[in-house]
Specification:
Helices cover 86% and strands 0% of the residues. It has helices spanning 2-59, 66-85, 89-110, 119-133. It starts with a helix and ends with a helix.
């Protein structure tokens, strides 16, 4: 009778080990998703700060036109960070919309507009923040 218990214990032990590995893999994957979401939210927050800087730079463009370019560069740099860390289609769409809005502001400035409309940048940044935090 003792011999029949050993194979059963071994089966139970193996099943427990497999379950533990599966659980650990699931938790690691879950943590990975949480970390990506946190990275997205942090970067979206940094972009929101850059958008605020952009609005202020546009308002003060006569005093220091380089501030606008610096704010746009900061937004683009943060967009690159998000793009490298996510495969989420909603985040990618919001990132591309924001990138397009930044390009439009840059183009307007290059075409001589000293006070370009930055509301599309603000709106796109808001959408990105919403997507990253939902």
């Amino acid at each position: 009778m003792a011999a029949s218990r050993r194979p059963r214990r071994r089966s139970i032990t193996i099943a427990a080990a497999v379950a533990a590995v599966a659980l650990t893999a699931g938790l690691t994957t879950g943590c990975d998703a949480v970390n990506k979401a946190l990275d997205c939210a942090r970067t979206a927050d940094a972009i929101a700060d850059s958008v605020t800087d952009l609005r202020q730079a546009v308002e003060n463009a006569a005093n220091d036109p380089t501030q606008t370019d610096e704010a746009l560069n900061s937004i683009e740099k943060n967009l690159d960070k998000i793009g490298d860390k996510t495969e989420d289609t909603d985040v990618n769409k919001a990132t591309e919309d924001l990138r397009e809005a930044v390009i439009n502001v840059r183009t307007a400035i290059q075409n001589g507009d000293e006070t370009p409309d930055v509301s599309p940048v603000t709106d796109a940044a808001g959408e990105l923040t919403k997507v990253c935090t939902s």
